[in-house]
Amino acid sequence: MTLLFGWMIASLLVPSHKSFKEFNPPFSVQLCARAQQLDASCCRTQRFARQKNLGANSFKNFSAQVLAFDRYPNEKHVPNHNIFIDFPNEYYVETGTSGGGSILRALGVRKKRPGAFRYIYSIDIDPQSIDVCQRQLSGYPNVKLRVGDSTSELWEMIRDISKPITFWLDAHRFPPEEDGKKNCPLLEELEQIGRHPIRTHTILIDDMSCCGTAAFDYLTVEQLIEKVLEINPQYQIKFLYSQILVAQPPR
What we know:
Largest sheet: 7 strands, mixed
CATH class: Alpha Beta
Shape: globular
CATH architecture: 3-Layer(aba) Sandwich
Radius of gyration: 19 Å
CATH topology: Rossmann fold
Strand order of the largest sheet: 3-2-1-4-5-7-6
Number of helices: 8
Number of domains: 1
């Protein structure tokens, strides 16, 4: 009886037998929402630390989750698979540090592929986000964080790099604001990547579901793909989870 009860609980908590379409809302959406909640809990202001079920250890809990993502290679059944493990380069450059969740994913890749992401750079316009992450990631000397606007300062981060980079572009403001400022720096970021002499970078753009909305300044999917192909017309474009655009050079 105890074993049967335990199996029933496990089947509820780890529904690996289901495919994406069997969840309502989709399981990937549920995971994304939880990741964003955890990510937000460790940055911005102290009020997040007082929220129920989050608290001061949320960053560590999130770390444990994202570092475990690469245990499950079959993304069809486990949508929280660490996608970065599929796009390794020696350099990882990110825009939109936020709570540091994506940096932790990049660090997780190094456990499986020691040569990958030896150097991790991230930029965020919010000084508080960078301050929190610097304290939380102080034990990782290969992680370099920068306060700045990726609309114009991404180039300073990459100009002296002489090897292919894995880019994670996620610096848009959300929720979007109507203050006359740009909500989405993607076009400017891609322009700066295009200035780099190397044409074989891997580019990942998050939150593609924001295309056509204020969060992306009403940029369309077609406009972003066109801009990416200006960098390298041979890029192969694909989408993960209908949410992440991936541009890779031909293999």
